[in-house]
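seq/struct pair 1
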Amino acid sequence: MIDKTIYSITTEETRYILGGVFVERITNQNINFLRFTSTDGHRLSLVDSKLDGLGGVDIEKGVIISRKGLSEMKKMADEGGNLKLAFTSNSAI
């Protein structure tokens, strides 16, 4: 999901709101999906992934994860093992 959205994150400093990926939980017919969306003003990337048994992801309004945060998450995921993501009121853990 990171690979499919990180390339379309803007690099312009003046458009900081577009400087990350918007992450939200989507529920469709009692099936939970995690959605990553990003744009640079010209390109739009959107990818959904089914949450298998992880319906506990509690993102009511969605969150924006910065390019740097996604890069670090990708490094950890590439090293192997499972990657777990949690959200507080103003942070991703």
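seq/struct pair 2
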Amino acid sequence: MSAVTEAQLDAFRPGAPAPVVRNNIPRAAEQLIDMHAGDLRPLDGDNRWRVVICRVGIVWITQERDWHDYVLTPGDVFVVTQRGQVLIEALEDARLEITPSVRAAPYRGDLPVFH
């Protein structure tokens, strides 16, 4: 067995660290949004599978057709799962990162097992 094949198999052996799978969305496609306490930011249209990442502060998120509301603190991630409007309110000064829909960006990573 070649060394490359052996290394590929090691990734799936019990106790081995899990391989990292990344969806390589270009950084330029992501939006960084700074919000002041009390600011509201609507995301209109079909935003399903967009990811909202709270980098700084605290934000409240609600989405149409969802009975639950969500509060994000630094490091928390929210994935939009419903069609319709999403409303984000900053409960304190905040910085968010919003990705394009990950549904529209198929896996383009470099996981050696697939080579």
